[in-house]
Specification:
By secondary structure, the protein is mainly α. It contains six helices and four strands. It has a two-stranded antiparallel ribbon. Strands 3-4 form a two-stranded antiparallel sheet. Helix 2 runs antiparallel to helix 3, helix 4 runs parallel beside helix 6 and helix 5 runs antiparallel to helix 6. The relative contact order is 0.13.
Length: 210
């Protein structure tokens, strides 16, 4: 049996085990709530992002069908999506929305934390996809080079996210995307998250998530 077909205990991980089903239901719940509030409040930006989310969910579903992502990875992706939806829709006093909230005044925003977390998760998902191929050739443990490749893939996905945000600024008159400095900081925090995940891949990637 190839590494792609192996799950816990050496058997093929089911496509929709209990953990995966719970993650899907949780995602459907918060997306439904986000869609309701986005329509009710006339938030065009988040109607756009919900459409993007649906495309991404389809892409993750196709990847999962191919490589059987771990339940932990699926849950982390779901939490990331929920944090993103909350960031733009939950009102918070003077900053307006949660994304603009300073968690550490002048140093760390909620938005930056979500970027670091999200692209750490994306990097780990890249590793789970690559691991399936490595296992098929009898080399399931990640080398330093593979860990770096996963980090670069995570950062590349982060750059694609910034393109989507830029598209939002072109399509809508008002967004919470921010200015050039915010864009650069997003990329920095994407890289921080991806690097942390790459270190975890190198240390634990041969055994975690099985």
């Amino acid at each position: 049996m190839s590494g792609r077909d192996q799950g816990a205990g050496g058997g093929r991980r089911p496509l929709l085990g209990r953990g995966a089903v719970a993650a899907v239901l949780f995602t459907a719940l918060y997306l439904s709530a986000a869609a309701y509030f986005a329509v009710r409040t006339g938030n065009a930006e988040f109607r756009f992002y919900i459409a993007v989310m649906l495309v991404l969910i389809a892409a993750v579903g196709a990847l999962h069908a191919r490589v059987r992502l771990s339940a932990g990875a699926l849950w982390c992706l779901s939490v990331w999506g929920g944090a993103h939806m909350a960031g733009g829709l939950v009102p918070v006093g003077e900053p307006g929305v949660l994304y603009n909230l300073w968690l550490v005044p002048g140093r760390l925003k909620y938005d930056q934390l979500v970027h670091a977390y999200g692209f750490a998760v994306a990097t780990w998902v890249c590793w789970e996809a690559i691991r399936a191929r490595l296992a098929a050739i009898g080399a399931p443990r990640p080398t330093v080079g593979v860990a770096v490749l996963c980090a670069l893939a995570g950062m590349g996905l982060g750059a694609a996210n910034e393109i989507v945000e830029f598209a939002a600024t072109r399509l809508m008159p008002e967004t919470n995307v921010g200015d050039y400095e915010n864009n650069a900081l997003d990329l920095v925090f994407n890289a921080i998250g991806a690097t942390i995940a790459a270190v975890a891949v190198r240390i634990r990637g041969g055994s975690a998530g099985r």
